[in-house]
Design a protein that fits this description.
The chain is of the alpha/beta class. Helix content is 27%, strand content 31%. The chain contains six helices and ten strands; from the N terminus they run ααβαβαββαββββαββ. A hairpin with a 2-residue loop joins β6 and β7. The structure holds S-adenosylmethionine. S-adenosylmethionine binds next to α3.
């Protein structure tokens, strides 16, 4: 099966170095004076480690138990929990900041909507969010089988059995309409999962409205 659960079980660490974008996330969390961060969909913990190195108090969660076992081995001081982005194991408004890199695109648009609803529920008023997802400019968007508008199965990709949603700018603005979008950035960079290819990504820097 080509999915993240199997990748971690068979390969262990898949992505070791932090994404270059994590530096921008750190600047955002510093500017907004966010001290405690949840690494949502943390995988084996490369960004949790980077955030710890940068002085943040970190916890992490992911749906893969195999990934979390590795993360706990590297960062015994960090609390890692099994989670589903569509049903987070955290109380309403209990989280200061969320770092979520390349996670909520794994599924249909409904999966992403549910995840964003959960992110909104658990963030405190004024809490901060750094989140990246694939865009419709991504070369992978031109290939594969469309199962609904904007969602594809790309069996060539290493996680190709999982549907991936590719987001447009208007979809991003709509999906994050309940947040204050501080910055919505579209960028192209070498793909982290398919070496030699280029990925097109949205990065959202946002805060939860004080309601
Ligand atoms: C591309 S990897 C990125 C991992 C990590 N954020 C990083 O940048 O190293 C996608 C991650 O999302 C996790 N994931 C996928 N669907 C999930 C879900 N419904 N709930 C929680 N985690 C999920 C996978 O287990 C995997 O760790």
């Amino acid at each position: 099966m080509k999915d993240w659960k199997t990748l971690y079980e068979e390969r262990g660490v898949v992505q070791k170095e932090p994404s270059p974008k994590a530096r921008d996330a750190v600047s955002f969390f510093r500017t907004t004076k966010t001290g405690k961060i949840l690494d949502l969909g943390c995988g084996t913990g490369r960004h949790a480690a980077y955030l710890v190195q940068n002085g943040f108090e970190v916890r992490g969660c992911d749906s893969s138990e195999a990934a979390l076992r590795i993360a706990r081995g590297v960062l015994p001081q960090v609390e890692f929990q099994v989670c589903d982005v569509g049903l987070l194991p955290y109380r309403d408004r209990s989280v200061d900041g969320i770092f979520c890199h390349a996670v909520i695109q794994h599924g249909t648009l409904a999966t992403a909507k549910k995840a964003i609803g959960e992110i909104h529920r658990v963030l405190r008023g004024g809490g901060t969010l750094f989140l990246t997802v694939t865009s419709t400019e991504h070369p992978e968007y031109l290939t594969g089988r469309e199962i609904e508008p904007g969602t594809k199965i790309n069996i060539d990709a290493i996680d190709g059995d999982m549907p991936h949603h590719y987001f447009t700018e208007s979809e991003m603005r709509d999906l994050f309409g309940r947040f204050v979008i501080v910055r919505l950035e579209h960028y192209r960079a070498p793909s982290e999962k398919s070496p030699g290819r280029v990925a097109a990504t949205w990065a959202t820097y946002a805060t939860r409205r004080e309601e």
